[in-house]
Amino acid sequence: MKAASPDTVLVVHPGAELYGSDRVLLGSVTGLIREGWRVVVVLPAPGPLVAALTAERAEVEFAPQFVLRKRLLRPRGWGELLTTAAKGVIGAWGALRRHSPSVVLVNTITIPVWPLVARLRRVPTVVHVHEGESQARPWLKRVLYAPLLAAQRIIVNSRFSLAVMADSFACLAARSQVILNAVPGPETVTPPRPELVPGPRLAYIGRLSPRKGVDLIVSALRLLRDAGRPATLDLYGAVFPGYEWYEAELLSLIHSSDLTDAVTLHGFVDDVWPGLSAADIVVVPSRLDEPFGNTAVEGILAARPVVVSETSGLREATHGYATAFGVPAGSADALATAVARIADSWDAILPGLEPARAEAIHRHDPAAYGRAVAQVVAETAGPIGAAHTSTRDAVSFRA
């Protein structure tokens, strides 16, 4: 094995889009570079994330990745599992040999070969956990979290995610640190409309998937309009490959509900702020537990009230904000009722939007987040990382 390359962090990520964990990765890389690290990011394929990374002076390369999908754990997926796992091990081994980094940062638990291969090559490893699979079967959770046993340090995005992980392997909590996600706000904020005339404009930003409950917003919109409230809905996001059937079902629901003129599908958007500026209320209707709620925080940063499902991560992300309203998960009726109450209380809600925005800026400051991640990486790197250890405050807390 070659000697470690001083000041190099090899960062690994399973995709190249610009959704939640992708943007958090960008914040991690930015923080590392600002603390003086050379950063090489390994991705499986090109995508919009690449330009954002290179703009921050990160080096980007592509290598085969083994991304653990639940379908691969079924008997019919075992062949693909073995094939892609072998390719992933070869890709990881080659990247580690080429760069001989002083530390590896693995972003998400879905690329499990990296902590194992790094351990074999004696490279210190940090894993950043964005997942909180609380509803998975116990054996599956243990499979998902077992590779973390090979990591020296673990960053977790919420207390909820930490609790789910520790439920599988209690020993992982001792090497873990919760660091709240960085969520950059808009450069300028468009003030909310003083009156919701003719009706509220709803917005959803994120993946179009059954887990995210996008169809629930459509059903809630139908209920609002049936009640005489001329609300509209803008959807910003696209389906994950393989879920095209859900988009077809969503379009069918919109058509059958006579909402074609009230719902606009914009597809994936790189810049979320114009859409949030055009909205009155942001809705995050996830059916299942979310490890955190970046889009809910983005709504607060845009000075808009948000309606969120009362799942653990979303509840944690919006705790303490007077302009965030929780509803039972999976209920279109509850979503419609919450939107109607916000519209009826609009004058009382408006004064609280700016204080909530100021608090969100403080909690999710990108600079503080970047320093916190860089601190963990530097500590994991040992003597080599001493020169990159920041003494400034960071928005983080020990597990």
TrEMBL record:
GO molecular function per UniProt: glycosyltransferase activity
Pfam families: Glyco_trans_1_4, Glyco_transf_4
Entry-linked SUPFAM superfamilies: UDP-Glycosyltransferase/glycogen phosphorylase
InterPro entries from the UniProt entry: Glyco_trans_4-like_N
Residues annotated as domain Glycosyltransferase subfamily 4-like N-terminal: 20-183
Keywords: Glycosyltransferase, Transferase
UniProt-listed PANTHER family: GLYCOSYLTRANSFERASE
Name the UniProt record assigns to this protein: Glycosyl transferase family 1
Organism: Propioniciclava flava
